[in-house]
Amino acid sequence: MLVFGIETSCDETGVALYDAQAGRLLAHALHSQSTLHEAYGGVVPELASRDHVRRLVPLARTVFERSGRSPAEVDAVAYTEGPGLAGALLVGAGFARAFALARGVPAIGVHHLEAHLLSPLLANPALAFPYLALLVSGGHTLLVRADAVGRYRLLGETLDDAAGEAFDKTAKLLGLGYPGGPALAALAREGRPGAVHLPRPMLTSRDLDFSFSGLKTAVMTLVRAHPGAGRQFRADVAREFEEAVVEVLAGKCLAALEATGLDRLVVAGGVGANRRLRETLAAAAARGGFAVHWPEPELCTDNGAMVAHAGALRLQAGLEPRAPGSAFTVRPRWELASR
Ligand code: KG4
Ligand code: ZN
After folding, report:
1. Residues having CB within 6 Å of any atom of ligand 1
2. How far apart are CA 275 and CA 185, in angstroms?
3. Which atom from ligand 1 is nearest to the alpha carbon of 163?
4. How far does residue 138's CA lie from ligand 1's centre (Å)?
5. pTM tops 0.70, yes or no
6. Which ligand has the nearest atom to the CA of 112?
7. Neighbouring residues of 318: CB distance < 8 A, sequence distance ≥ 6
């Protein structure tokens, strides 16, 4: 069973072909729009939609060429139905539905976060349910208990900014480009530990929720109190900021593992590419007797492979109709729990 996957929820156009029988990703292609939005310091929705229109067909051609398969061999099309930017989602949904209708195959609307939280299974199909998933991206920060494909329970989430959003906004305060996460992490490597101090928001709150907007404000206050400070100061702030976010994320993961009794942790989403987070969780796992799984770094950020894969798992689990249909919606706001 060959599944064609399409991701267009935000500023990445992702396309992939996944062989569900073999459990193997055959090809995936990605175009990141980050340079398009860089000048604006964030994603401009209309520019994002128009660029998805330009990129989809050439990327689709690329994955068929790379995999040596033809569109006639596709058994199902999976696309991101939400959450995300309405216009951007519509481009992917329209393309996917048109393709499916033309080929007479089913089209599966995938929840973007479900695709992220199942993505570590792409590299490691033996990973078993139930597991705890930490989803940390530019738009979301949540802890989910995954019991099976399609069965998820929200344990905690951010009350304000997402972790990636906090990285991006803080990077902007430090004069770094967009997206700020990787740039801030690179600068943090030059920072001295403990040179400045930032809070660890909600680390000791008794719930599994997060809050990152106060941290960004604390950085703003610190930067304003040191006008004209040089690169070393900015590196020290970057290091302390990264440390604070990582400590809170890791602390909440440990609390959630303890509360649920689970012994497997999956980390997904763009911030999951952060090296310090990986090192900290790997060390905690070694000490705490739990296993931690990651998607390959290139599949941490948005991509078509995770969408094709999630669609295939939903089809195999009998959660999707196998008949082709023509009606479709997009869901810019969509709770994972209502999946
Ligand atoms: O999952 P993703 O590609 O898109 C969303 O669905 O949001 O995540 C993008 C986010 C951005 O905020 C970016 O700054 C952050 O992930 N990010 C990182 C790193 N790489 C990407 N944050 C911290 N460290 C990184 N190495
Ligand atoms: Zn994402």
Report:
1. 10, 137-139, 164, 167-168, 179-182, 185, 269-271, 273-274, 301-302
2. 8
3. 12
4. 5
5. yes
6. 2
7. none
Measured between alpha carbons, how far is 247 from 203 in angstroms, rounded to an integer?
8
Closest CA to 142 of 151, 152, 150, 129: 152
Position in ligand 1 atom list of the atom nearest CA 139: 7
Residue nearest to atom 8 of ligand 1 (CA): 270
Residue type, 91: V
Closest Cα to atom 16, ligand 1: which residue?
270
Question: How many angstroms separate the CA atoms of 202 and 265, rounded?
Answer: 21
Which ligand has the minimum distance to the alpha carbon of residue 300? 1
| Separation of CA 142 and ligand 1 centre (Å) | 14
Q: What DSSP string runs through 134-175? A: EEESSS-EEEEEEEETTEEEEEEEBSSS-HHHHHHHHHHHTT
Q: Give Dmax over CA atoms of the chain in angstroms.
A: 63
Rounding to the nearest 10 degrees, give the CA dihedral for residues 37, 112, 217, 191: -80
Q: What is the pLDDT of residues 13-56, one digit of tens each?
A: 999 999 999 999 999 999 999 889 888 878 899 999 999 999 99
Q: Do residues 232 and 196 lie in contact, with contact meaning Cβ atoms separated by under 8 Å?
A: no
Q: Enter the DSSP assignment of 72.
A: G
How many angstroms separate the alpha carbon of residue 14 from the centre of ligand 2? 11
For residue range 240-280, what is the model confidence (pLDDT) as tens digits? 999 999 999 999 999 999 999 999 999 999 999 999 999 99
